[in-house]
Amino acid sequence: MASSVVEEKLLENAGSRQVSLPISRVKLIMKSSPDVSSINQDALFLTAKATELFVQYLASYSYKKGTGKEKKTLIYSDLAKAAEESEQFQFLSECL
């Protein structure tokens, strides 16, 4: 189900090459890996877009399952709860 949402978002934005994340920052993070020597512009864009979509999905999932809905806010504990309870976000449980 999550992959279909990501695919839909990518298809919606296929014509535009806009991303909300700063490309230079994403490139800096990618270059921090010792395994990366050069980065293709398409790979950089797709990584930034995939990261953006992941963060959007995590935020919307956490908001729907969280306690901040009454105040229309997303709080840290909502993110941590999503990481603990959802199998798909389990890898984030140590970070959150």
TrEMBL record:
Major localisation: nucleus
UniProt-listed CDD domains: HFD_CHRAC1-like (cd22924)
Gene3D superfamilies named among the record's database cross-references: Histone, subunit A (1.10.20.10)
Keyword Ribosomal protein tagged: no
Superkingdom of origin organism: Eukaryota
Residue intervals of the Transcription factor CBF/NF-Y/archaeal histone domain: 20-82
GO MF annotations, alphabetized: DNA binding; nucleotidyltransferase activity; protein heterodimerization activity
InterPro entries noted in UniProt: CBFA_NFYB_domain, Histone-fold, Transcr_DNA_Rep_Reg
Location of this chain's protein in the cell: Nucleus
Listed GO CC annotations: CHRAC
GO biological process, one term: chromatin remodeling
Keywords from the UniProt entry: Acetylation, Coiled coil, DNA-binding, Nucleotidyltransferase, Nucleus, Phosphoprotein, Transferase
Pfam families noted in UniProt: CBFD_NFYB_HMF
Function recorded in the entry: Forms a complex with DNA polymerase epsilon subunit POLE3 and binds naked DNA, which is then incorporated into chromatin, aided by the nucleosome remodeling activity of ISWI/SNF2H and ACF1. Does not enhance nucleosome sliding activity of the ACF-5 ISWI chromatin remodeling complex.
Subunit annotation: Heterodimer with POLE3; binds to DNA. Component of the CHRAC ISWI chromatin remodeling complex at least composed of SMARCA5/SNF2H, BAZ1A/ACF1, CHRAC1 and POLE3; the complex preferentially binds DNA through the CHRAC1-POLE3 heterodimer and possesses ATP-dependent nucleosome-remodeling activity. Within the complex, the heterodimer with POLE3 interacts with SMARCA5/SNF2H; the interaction is direct and enhances nucleosome sliding activity by the SMARCA5/SNF2H and BAZ1A/ACF1 interaction. Within the complex, the heterodimer with POLE3 interacts with BAZ1A/ACF1; the interactions are direct.
Entry protein name: Chromatin accessibility complex protein 1
Record organism: Erpetoichthys calabaricus (Rope fish)
